[in-house]
Amino acid sequence: MTSPLPGRHTPLRPTWLCRIDAHPWPCGPAKLALLSEYADNQAELLDLLAAMKDEAEQHLTSLDSDRHTDLTRRFLAWPPPAAPSPR
Length: 87
Known about the structure:
Elements: E1 11-12, E2 17-18, H1 28-37, H2 42-63, H3 72-76
Antiparallel strand pairs: 1-2
């Protein structure tokens, strides 16, 4: 893996909109690329998304007159649950 963010649909900081389609990031194509890239390591995907969520919250809060922005659903609610490990 060369970059933690695969594909062209990457966030434009500090607005956290997709560089390609201007939807809130992660947009649909970014989610698909992330799921594909991290298919074998969901824990790493969740760690990455949690770190990016924290960064995005800081950016968006500062852009909105320091009104706290909670992005938990946007960043962490969409990945499917991890498959149970075989016993």
